[in-house]
Fold this sequence. Notes:
Elements: E1 4-5, E2 11-18, E3 21-28, H1 33-44, E4 52-55, E5 59-61, E6 80-83, H2 87-101, H3 120-128, E7 134-135, H4 143-155, H5 157-166, E8 172-175, E9 190-193, E10 198-201, H6 214-226, H7 235-251, E11 278-279, E12 284-286, E13 292-294, E14 300-302, E15 304-306, H8 308-336
Parallel strand pairs: 2-6, 7-8, 8-10, 9-11
Antiparallel strand pairs: 1-2, 2-3, 4-5, 4-6, 9-10, 12-15, 13-14
Helix pairs in contact: 3-8, 5-7, 6-7
Amino acid sequence: MSAYATTAADEIELTLTHHGSQITLAFSQDATITDLSERVASDLSIPPANQKFLLPKAGLQKPPFKDPTLPLSPLVAKKITLMGSTSAELSSLNASISRAAAPRRPSSIKAATPARHRDWKKVQDEAQYTFHTLRPLPYLPNPDRSLRFLERLQDDAGIKAAMRTHKFSVPLLTEMDPAMHTTHESRTLGLNRNQGEVIELRLRTDAYDGYRDYKTIRKTLCHELAHNVWGPHDRNFWELCKQIEREVERDDWRAGGKSVGNVEYAEAVEEEVYDHGGWTGGEFVLGGGGETVVSSAGGTVPSGILSRRDILARAAEERMKRQRQADNESKGDGETS
């Protein structure tokens, strides 16, 4: 920290502080700051270009000095701080900088994977041949669970394939109130109005506390889709119904039957599908006023009483939305590929 005179009358000693360490150097009485710089370069391997000296009163000094003849004798017993890096430290630092700046090559180059081809004809067909509006009954418990059930049917791989094959476009898929279609003789599981304008499915158990087996309901949906073509339960109808059931099973690559969310399902029980064939006419009542129909495209429409014109108009709007979305995706993919 300090500099002090030695016993020899013609020498002085200066103590420098460098990186927290003290270094003592001896000089002649007439030594200058230039002599100090040379000793630091030779003894400490700090080249002049890297040297900086913080001196009392004189402040910061570095080579080339403004006054190279500045004497060292007045600095005896003064605090002198040396700042600067040795040649070895500079070499190590430069090497580290070079390594960090060098471009890195991956240790292993992964093989390029081909871009997945998207069947845009299939995308456009799925936008057209589908259930355009999904409708749970809002006055029954947990309508959100029923909506998820309807969405699952809409997204079922087997159902989607069958609807594309037969070009089925259904304006409204909704759930049935079990209390309205149960007698001592039979239990109605599905209804089809006006060749597929509206399809109702009995999703819930009779006590409303759970949901029926998924595959049984899906089989009922196959039955109701067949009524899009044939009204009465004749030979033509049953042949088409069995054909649709086989197609749905064949194309159901996800195997179906798994629960969704926390929906409770009844045990799988084979039930005979009761319905009234393809029936026509009348108004379709959807609960009380002020409620909404949940659109499969994310929107809502008012409920109450939907006439044939209302149902078809809503379906046309959803169909156009889906078609525009499919067209926009197709164009966007073409621009980026």
